[in-house]
Every structure is written in structure tokens, then in C-alpha cells.
Amino acid sequence: MTPADAAIPNLQQDIQRAVTVALAEDIGDGDITAQLIPPERQARARVITREDCVFCGRPWVEEVFRQLDPALQLQWYVQDGDRVAAGSTLFELCGTARSILTGERCALNFVQTLSGTATTASEYAALAADSEIRILDTRKTIPGLRTAQKYAVLCGGCHNHRVGLYDAFLIKENHIAAAGGIDKAVSQAHRIKPGALVEVEVESLEELQQALDAGADVIMLDEFTDDMTAQALTLARGRAKIEISGSVNEARLKQLAGLAVDYISSGSLTKHLRAIDLSLRLLSE
Predict the structure, then answer these.
(1) HEC states along 235-283?
(2) 193 is catalytic
(3) Is the pTM of this model over 0.90?
(4) What was the pLDDT predicted at 46?
């Protein structure tokens, strides 16, 4: 586990929890197909990727087989964050055939999903490679896999926004209306959790000025034109960071890089992933 050891709180506990749930929903009261195999039968297996990808998921695989059968041995050929070519061996397993086949789908589900997330993130990171813009993820994650996908985003070369509702303030239109205004919302945020990052989404230059005057740390621009964005950056310089949220493509990113935007956040990093095609095969002794 390399890219996010200190970046994501409770990651190891979340890995254990997610694996426990995944094994329970798959195995239930027992793998009846595995019972066709003699319990003493030993086997070796190899897992390959059928397509190019950025690999992610090693800690989840290790936890699957640790919980299922600690005697099973794994040999790794990749690390999280590695770029691997189609046909590459990711890891091999050695142990009872029952354990390997019972844990196969659960382990590969984690790898195909997290490698898909990391691969998508790597494509976005490549778009920003020649700029100072940091591409951020969002909370639009698969339920139950929040920290896992945020770890995968880091493996792909992008960055994390807040992990959840508890670690930073993101004050949007409805919060502003319910709190009685931007100044009241920001002031209350500073009182509730001093030192926590306070971000405000604004829809006009007037609201931007209100957020700056209230002491927001980051300001998210909603539906701003390029001219308005340039004005916002001038007003915010030295006072707050500027974030753009929404669709990202190469042409748009080049425009924003020219304007020196600080952040772009995109839910696509975690919700528009395509699972990577993997294969496990038992090897002949």
C-alpha cells in the first residue's frame, strides 16, 4: 500500500470491513461448488490482465485470502499504481484449490473495479500533466467503497477532495439559503470546526466577493464563463483557491490551465469507470 498510506483515514479498517462483507455476500453458508474438489487438493493459479491498465487493489486481494485461508501464498509481480500491459501477470497463488476458487471472484471484483478507477484517473491526470491544476475526485463513489476508490484515484495520479461530510465544509446553494447567507454560513463553519477547510460554491462574482470577505478557503465556480473565471482569479489571488467543477476534456483543460485555475473536481473519476478485464487460470503442475 503505497500512494495513500497517510492520506486516507481508516483505510486499513475499511479494507477489512469491505472484504468481510464481500466474502459474506458471496459465500453465504458455504461454497457448494468448491465442495466438488477434494479438500486436500493443492493448486497454483495465475491472474492476468486482458487489457492495458493502471493496477490497483493489492491490499484487498491480500485481505481476501488472509480472511479466507491464511495458509494460501501469493506472489506479486506488480505494485499499486503500476502501468501494466495486456497479457501481464499480476500475481500468482499457491494453496488449496478450494480456497483459490472460493476467493477468486471476490478478489478479482476488487481489482477490476479499483484498477478501472485508477486507469480512469490516470487519463485525467495525463490531461493536466503540463499544468499546475490538481484534478480532484468527489463523493460520487460506489457505496461502501469510498476510501477504496479514493485510494485508487491517488494510484492513478489524481488527488482527493474531502473524504466525507465530516472532514471539510462544502457550502452549496441550499446550505447558503438554509443558513441565511454566505457570510453566516462561513462564520458558523469556522465556529463549528475551527481549522477545517471551508469551501463555498458561488454562482456570480457578487457571491464570490461575499465568500472572499467571509474568509472561505476555496471557492467553487458554478457555470462561470471564461471571462468571469478570469475576473474571479484576479479577485481571489492570495485570498482563496479557485475550483472548477464539471466535465473535463483536453480542450477545456487547456483553457483552464491558461487561466491558472487551482483545482478541477470531477465525479467521473469514480462513477464513470469501466472495470478492467481480468482472468484467473489454474496452472498445470
Answers:
(1) HHCCCCEEEEECCCCHHHHHHHHHHCCCEEECCHHHHCCCCCCEEEEEE
(2) no
(3) yes
(4) 98
